[in-house]
Amino acid sequence: MKVPHEAKKVFTGEIFDVYQWEQKMFDGSDATFEMIKRPDTIQIIAVDGEKIYLSVEEQPFKGSFIGMLGGRVEKGEEPLAAAKRELLEEAGFASNDWDLFKTYQPFSKMDWMIYLYIARNCKQIAEQRLDPGEKITLISFTFDEFIDYILSENFWGQEFVGDILRMKLEPAKLQSFKQRLFK
Amino acid sequence: MKVPHEAKKVFTGEIFDVYQWEQKMFDGSDATFEMIKRPDTIQIIAVDGEKIYLSVEEQPFKGSFIGMLGGRVEKGEEPLAAAKRELLEEAGFASNDWDLFKTYQPFSKMDWMIYLYIARNCKQIAEQRLDPGEKITLISFTFDEFIDYILSENFWGQEFVGDILRMKLEPAKLQSFKQRLFK
Fold first, then answer.
1. Whether A80 contacts A117, CB under 8 Å
2. pTM metric for this prediction
3. What ipTM score was computed for the predicted complex, to two decimals?
């Protein structure tokens, strides 16, 4: 959800800002309501030919995990521009065929949108250029391997897992997702 | 994830506290890392005989939604005690047969645990006693209706949806979940 207009910022953090406002309750009393705002993020399903790329990432506090390429949208940046920048920084890839697959708002008390993009025809055009807080290697999958991996316990990114599980229950949807990835 | 030991609280909110610490990066530099801590919450699958209860809830800012009974764990309170308190406050129910089904930590940068309980043999022993920020009515389902409802777009609580989708893909698991609810 979006932070409401009347809310005041009461804390500015490195990632998380805190907002509060007075909210009228059902009995006419007032209560202080609170929400978090954080930078939106983008995630990328990077595709080239029949290959789909995920990232094996290590971060200083979080440790190692396998997930999608992606990162934070910077202040004033458009989500698609952020996706292009992250794809280039994290993989050295460029794509000429971007497709916004879906957006997610995972948490009702947090003003945070995740944009999930498909990037087709990914081509290596540069070296990786990582932050001091990232170690990333790419791992490539066929479509079936990709689906299996998303549904394994190891995949990082629960929002997308629900979509894939629904596709598994309706094979026609899984097929049309495959066509969308490789069209 | 848990806030690390060395982190300092830099903001105390109504719900959300903010913690920061200095984190060594891969190149030896330091960066300020940040996490949110919020009260843990409990959710309840309330069962009586063949009936399963969900709550139709209205909140002043969030609006109306259908989800599980439940709420925040108070300071110093055990999760099970919080579940018993919320079941009594929100439904007027008591149960003599509690079963911790699963815990969830939905978000890596937030110290927040959700405890999902099954409460069997729920009996009405009191009137509802709601906060000024709650309007709750109960709605009862058969097992099949409950599963369908969880998987509809309207259900509030995505963590649990993934579990139910996985059960739908493996009917034996769905059957054993049904037995666990009604045993």
1. yes
2. 0.93
3. 0.91
